[in-house]
Write a structure and sequence with these properties.
Dihydrodipicolinate Reductase, domain 2; binds NADP nicotinamide-adenine-dinucleotide phosphate; 2 domains; 32% helix; Rossmann fold; five-stranded parallel beta sheet
Length: 354
């Protein structure tokens, strides 16, 4: 397939945030053919980002500058996505949005390239990236689903603080410093009590703590995150009848979401056969038998990682531990992989037609 010349104008809205900084670094590291990068931020401070050895200012959004781009990554917020994405896409700009704003819109493809790149369409210029918690599971479960059809998932997630953005991470570090000082003053070896500064970005103190709330609760008692994991998995796998039960938990980890998952199948699937399937699954790294990944050794790594694959309560159930970097495969990397797919198809230029 003939590739267009590397003359792409690429913008990143939210380039100064947790995901945005990773995204800009990935564009450089993976040699994405961006001739020009236009980073944007809220404009509340004079931020800049480094790209190919240069420091580029990241001012407030300028719609005309965005509309002149071939590709815009939105890594900011639902509000910003709602304001910008549809009008840019209508003008023929490719938009890849990492917020949850359009993920469940039936007209918008919600894409994880290892699973459903086929959902990408040259006529659908607005593309949604998935929730960072379900991405790892979607990649790891897909090869098993194709063979033995997953009917039911039971999930407990252990979610890093960076998943809630830069301000949550700042809060975590501030609380941790207070905790560390208190520990220094407990010389008698008694377990200290841990009151820490009042939380603002997260619902509870996170240093020295875990809590079962990621997002706000609905009338039935489910958190926003729990609902996103269930509904987005159904969309990405094309499995509307999938039964999903999730408890999403925030843990004092900087980076990397982990999930304990029980997978219920329509047909029997042995751990040995599942292991063979997962060993050759794209985008997945399976630990040796008995081994397992952790957030700390997964942070900064490209593949989704899994381990502790074992039999469940009967021949139709397996248990699995899945870890992925929420800022990479959970957001920035997945978006760049979508852009790379569009580039390989020669769809990225504004004048490209089917
Ligand atoms: N963190 C994750 O693991 C993760 C995973 C998947 C998806 N996402 C989604 O990715 C998006 C970014 O998340 P994040 O964790 O990177 O958040 P973040 O660290 O809080 O960064 C937010 C970014 O958006 C910018 N911004 C805020 N208001 C803006 C405005 N009105 N106009 C333009 N830019 C504005 C901020 O600019 P300033 O620097 O000027 O404040 C910053 O660059 C969110 O939609 C989030 O739901 C995040």
């Amino acid at each position: 397939m003939a590739r267009p010349k590397a003359a792409l104008r690429v913008a990143v809205v939210g380039a100064t945030g947790m995901v945005g900084r990773e995204l800009v670094a990935l564009l450089e590291r993976r040699r994405f053919p961006a001739a020009e990068l236009r980073p944007f931020s809220s404009g509340r401070a004079r931020f800049s980002v480094r790209f190919k050895g240069r420091s580029i200012p990241a001012p407030a959004v300028d719609f005309r500058a965005l509309a002149a781009c071939d590709l815009v990554f939105l890594v900011s917020s639902e509000t910003v996505a709602r304001r910008l994405a549809p009008s840019l896409a209508r003008r023929g700009v490719w938009v890849i949005d990492d917020s949850s704003e359009f993920r469940l819109d039936p007209k918008v493809p919600l894409v994880i390239p290892e699973v459903n790149a086929a959902a990408l369409d040259i006529h659908k210029r607005l593309i949604a990236g998935p929730n960072c918690t379900m991405t790892g599971l979607a990649v790891a479960g897909w090869p098993l689903h194709k063979v033995a059809r997953i009917r039911e998932l039971r999930i407990a997630s252990y979610q890093a603080v960076s998943g809630a953005g830069r301000s949550a991470l700042g809060e975590f570090f501030a609380q941790t410093r207070v905790l560390a000082r208190r520990l220094d003053f407990a010389p008698d070896g008694r377990a200290p009590l841990f009151p820490v500064p009042h939380p603002r970005a997260l619902p509870r103190a996170i240093a020295g703590n875990v809590f079962p709330q990621v997002g706000s609760f609905d009338a039935a008692g489910y958190s926003g995150e729990e609902n996103k994991v269930a509904s987005e998995l159904r969309k990405v796998w094309g499995a509307p009848g999938l039964r999903v039960s999730v408890t999403a938990v925030r843990v004092p980890v900087v980076r990397g979401h982990a999930l304990a998952v029980w997978l219920g199948f329509a047909r029997p699937l042995s751990p040995a056969r599942a292991r063979r399937l997962l060993e050759r699954a794209p985008g997945l790294e399976l630990s040796q038998e008995g081994g397992y990944p952790t957030p700390l050794d997964t942070a900064g790594r490209v593949p989704v990682r899994a381990g502790r694959l074992r039999a469940g309560v009967d021949s139709k159930e397996l248990a699995l531990w899945v870890v992925s970097d929420n800022l990479l495969k959970g957001a920035a990397l997945n978006s760049v992989q979508i852009a790379e797919f569009l580039w390989r198809r020669a769809w990225l230029r504004r004048d490209a037609t089917s």
